[in-house]
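Annex B.
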Amino acid sequence: MPEMKTRWDIFCTVVDNFGDIGVTWRLARQLVAEHSVAVRLWVDDLRAFERLCPDIDINATQQWQQGVEVRQWSVDWQPTEAADVVIAAFACQLPSAYMEAMAEREKPPLWMNLDYLSAEDWVVGCHGLPSVKYKNVQKFFFFPGFRKGTGGLLRESGLLERRRQFQQSPQAQREFLQGLGIDRAPNAQLISLFAYENTGLASWLDTMAADSTPTHLLVPEGRILGDVERWLGLHGLKAGAVHVRDALTVQVLPFVRQDQYDLLLWSCDFNAVRGEDSFVRAQWAGRPLLWHIYRQDEDIHLDKLDAFLTLYTQGLSEPAREAISGLWRAWNAGETMTDHWKSTRKHWPELEKHAETWCLEQALQADLAAALVQFYLNWI
Ligand code: TRH
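Protein-arginine rhamnosyltransferase: predicted structure tokens.
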């Protein structure tokens, strides 16, 4: 008799942007590919999903993508059996009929809330703790994180080897970039820019334009484009547009599929990223990065930013630590970037080495999918 696979249901509400679906889609694929479980991914907004995975049929209520059963999570919920493991991503509220189905199971499922990523200390103490209970079904907190004792970070098996091979192959990089219409000048530094609207951008672009080293800036279509347009004095920038201002070439890219985005990060010397998933992927790229954190009420995101900086800058010399911390803080405050960028450039070799060291250190932790599976095995 074939072995019955453990069934997992992952619930995702797309609050805004792409991080919610970005994280859950990545997790779902990895669980299927590496842990041989059956995954249903319930998503309430297939249009956001389609941007990351153009194969998605936005009208299908049920479809299979890379071994994952994708279900449209619509308001008129149809009765369905509850799975063995249930993940509510980022505290989303499960349908009440599904909660009933969980409670009706002979053996209640393992119910977890996959929380937001944070480097703060308290995460270690809260990871894995019981949360609320619904009838006989206990919910648990599952916290991703950078520290020992957290749920770790999403990292597919073989990711760093694939990244290394790609970065060691000028031909693979050239082919990938050419496929996106990018013709990199031999001595130009390549930077990718994925960020929310930012009033600090103009000063950063001014500084790069005035630099003695040329920069080729790659900007996937998205929220920061308005600031780029203002700086260029142009309207209606579209993918494919290339504009040169002194030492700076600005090129608008299409929003690429999720696995291609990794290749973009791996190709660049420096990556500006945001939110949660691109932030983690830029760390796996092993290159220096700039994080635009997702804004939260009462500025609580600034505590998260500081917590990460404290952890990330350990092992850097004092001047390099000040340079990168100053750059990140200015970016997140929308302040002028000029002096911070110049100081960061001064410490470039150290920051490059450090990015690789940080990546390897983080890769010593169990990855998030493996940690979830282990949590389940300990629980049963
Ligand atoms: O899009 P984000 O800002 O997402 C989120 C959401 O705002 C969410 O509500 C919030 O909770 C979270 O941030 C903190 O940033 P993120 O997380 O980096 O997600 C972007 C996804 O888009 C990521 O999976 C990478 C992917 N991506 C592509 O697939 N192609 C692209 O060209 C680009 C630029 C990104």
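The radius of gyration is 22 Å. The chain has a mean pLDDT of 97. Further annotation is deferred to the next reporting cycle.
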